[in-house]
Amino acid sequence: MAATATAALQLLCRPSLSAAQLRQVHAHLLTSSTLLLADRFLPNKLLRSLLPAHPLRVLRLFPRLRRILPAFRPNNYTFSFLLKAAADTSASASPGSENQGNVPVSSLHALAVVLAWDAHAYVANGLIHAYASHGLLPSARRLFDDALSSHAADVCSWTSLLTAYARAGQVEQARALFDGMPRRNDVSWSAMLSAYVAAGGFADAVRLFEDMLRSGVRPNRAAVVGVLAACGALGALEQGRWVHARHHSAGDMMMDGVVTTALVDMYAKCGSLDAARQVFAAATPEQRDVFAYTAMISGLSDHGCCREAIDLFAQMQAEGVRPNEVTFICVLTACGRAGLVARAKEIFRSMAAAHGVQPGVEHYGCLVDVFGRAGLLAEALGVVRSMPMRADSYVLGALLNACAAQGDVEVGKQVVEWLAEHELDHSGVHVQLSNMYAGWSNWGEVLKVRRTMEERSVAKVPGCSMVEVDGVACEFVAGDRSHPGIMSTVRDLHGHLRQLVGLESACQRG
């Protein structure tokens, strides 16, 4: 009897349950198991059983339980489950909208106030986290300030608000909160480090990681993955190796798919493809998930080992690992670089047919690039015209590159017009068109393009480079003279080149 009643209760979790079905389940529960319904822990057990896999079901089940169980009075544990569910649904919510996906954060807040649970530490932190997760910073800040004035704010309160500011792109506000924290744990350190990485502050992320170690806090997995991503972006190979060696030898870092992917990606981006291969080869089948495979395929492709990347894609499928959207972007890019047009077309067709992945604009852009690199400009143009969605700057940029490679100025002008119509004509587009005209010695058109850039205030963003010197990553842009060591090296290279040119001229004269 109890098992039947439990099964009936599980039906309440179904989102498609109609009002008539709800009444039928209620009637069955009333007639089958009064004892079960009298269990005051039952509602919390049901709500918790759905986390973290089904947060929306938790939010749908809660009002049904209150309707069926009149004696059910939510407590602090109930609110902790509900607010966790509300926060977890933020991924599907639009920024600044708490009601996306039927997530009633303010309604839960009001109910907590009515039932006098809003001052409880778990509930207060849950509310801050839920509001913050949905980008409702003013509400989250008000609750935080109230908790701060009543001395109820703890490390979770600070970290939740810090993460919210970081997600909103307000890294300076996040850092101000971090600096003001009376106590920090590994989660707060990793949250700040992840904020820097997401904002492109890779050097700041590495410095923060070093501060974390000096403070005696043991880095968690998120911090290790974050600093490895920063090292990869900076090209800081020695620092990345040090992070790998330190945490692997100390036993601090459990090697799972996430860490394996981070290491493969870091080594590949830092130019050490052999190290990336070694990490990938040493991983267990469980660790070699779709993300690890994708990182290795991308690394091989970026280093020119395109056929090896395509072979690894085949191995991935043979081992039963399903490719995702990013995997297809990487392997199609490898096909383009290797000139394997037929293989690229085959893989593109298999996306939806064999793997259930609908091609997106990025995949069409890769296919355009494949045809463009092979000199098949008509086929590339055909792909753009047949796309089921509007072409973006990546797709049209790939087509423009193909025009430049083939010297087809007329089609190139058409592409630029498309880009202008869609307001996608950034500086790189104009520079590419200018280079095309220059390649054909059409200096009048070059001048027109340059004048257009000036009239539209289209400024060319200066190139940025990074170099690691004695374990320290130095960043500089075109025309930057603030690094004496780099400038000295450039002058030395310039002197060597002049000597070589002089020797070559002397040999030719002799």
Describe this structure in words.
The chain is mainly α and 510 residues long. Among the domains are: 284-359; 363-463. It contains 28 helices and two strands. The chain has a two-stranded antiparallel sheet. Helix 16 packs parallel to helix 18 and helix 23 runs antiparallel to helix 24. The chain is globular.
Note the total helix count: 28
Unreliable spans are 94-103
Task: Quote the distance from N terminus to C terminus.
Answer: 105 Å
Any idea what the shape is?
A: globular
* Helix and strand element order: HHHHHHHHHHHHHHHHHHHHHHHHHHHEEH
- Binned strand content: under 5%
Return the average pLDDT rounded to an integer: 83
Total beta-strand segments = 2
Question: Nearest-angstrom radius of gyration?
Answer: 29 Å
Biggest sheet layout: 2 strands, antiparallel
Question: Structural class, from secondary structure content?
Answer: mainly alpha
Side by side, the strands of the main sheet go 1-2
Helix percentage range: 55-70%
